[in-house]
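Case study 2.
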Amino acid sequence: MKFGGPSTTQNKMKHRNYIRSISIVVVLLVFSGYTASAKDRTGTLPNIVYILADDMGYGDVSALNPESKIQTPSIDRLASEGMNFTDAHSGSSVCTPTRYGILTGRYCWRTRLKRAVLWNYDNSLMKPSQLNVASYLKENGYNTGMVGKWHLGLDWASQSKPGEITEDEADVDFAKPFKNGPVDMGFDYFFGINASLDMPPYIFLKNDKAVSIPTVAKKTFGRRIGLADKDLEPEHFLPAFTQEAVSYIKAQDKNQPFFLYFSLNAPHTPIAPSKPFQGKSKLEGKLGKYADFCIEVDDTVGQVLAALEERGLSDNTLVIFTADNGCAYYIGVKQFEEEGHFPSANYRGYKGGTFDGGHRVPFLVRWPATIKPRTQNDQTICLTDLLATCAAIVAEPLPRNAGEDSLSFLPALRGEAIDTSMRQGVVHHDFGGNFAIRKGKWKLLTKATSGLGHPYKSDLTPQLYDMQGDPGETTNVASQHPEVVKALTALLEQYKREKRSVRRR
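Prediction:
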């Protein structure tokens, strides 16, 4: 036996203790890394509240239109406490396509829906396999909730053919769950309506079921008579949605970030302010009723902000207020303008058209932890950009086959320039399936349309406008700049051909 050295048994024991020590260190490192990652996801990631008004014009917000006859102090507060994007656009000048783009980061004209919107009982436009804002945030630790108007189609159960789906109102089995709605697309919770509030069925939906069985046909919801809950009227919906959104916020765990997609039914038709807001604007006639409804929208925004403050969540909550498209001319806008209120402000056109009034929308963002108050950004953005922005916030890259038309505007929120080299232009689309494209100061309309119900005759001749010098699109300069017309036409065709407009690095 040699003295001064360890025995074989001692060597084995030392080796085991060394391995055990290393294992403990590795476990501790892994655990500390895991908890740091979890803390990052729950402690520093912002809550996200996305408030989408329905058919609310750029000029309906008093912070954006000094001449507005409608006062919106709560929405204006977002401008004073955050950032105003002056050149923000919906992906389409009508409803369904914009909502599809908001969630998927993809232009809707890339789907089966090439024009118009989905109707009452149309099947779902989205599939669970398609990444969207809700499913992406849920995968990255967020609780996800949606309140309000869906309008992306549902797969309703058939009465006559069990196990199959139907698009026939008379054949819908309202007692059975529907499929491919919000909860199948990544939302943990949903309370809302199927489509616009002038499209039956006029009932509330919760998660994947109807809250009640519609048993009567009602005329009070507008020109489309259809099945309804006998106890519901149009003025019941916005207050119910507001209460539900506030309740959702108040119920959230402070240790987990949440995403609330709050999609209002207002001020879209039927224009139905609830009783406390009737006459609130002190304006007469059609404008008065519409103004009352816009004031109720503003109050809804105020209640959401108050709920965040009550929970102590304001500082690290990203609140976005915007609209799905411009104001609808057919609700009486000619009379509004005669009385001095211009829902499109100084922009030409309305809902459904290719002129800017149809798709330039209010876009006000507050995030006190990041955004300086009373700031303004004049870069062109699109509502399709939400998905890429969320990915930049979470710092988990999108798959290459997702968010094909989505560019992050997170740099702008931090006071930096958006990287426009990744997307040269933004595409606009109208009710009839016509295109316009914007690059820098230039905007090309392949077909000029002024909006649904407007008497302007559509013009098939390409029109080119300098949006810096002529934001009202009054002077067509296509003949003076044929090279610009050619370049923008080629860029639009490239985006169609390549099936994406944003290049990922």
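Residues 45-423 form a domain with the Alkaline Phosphatase, subunit A fold (CATH 3.40.720.10).
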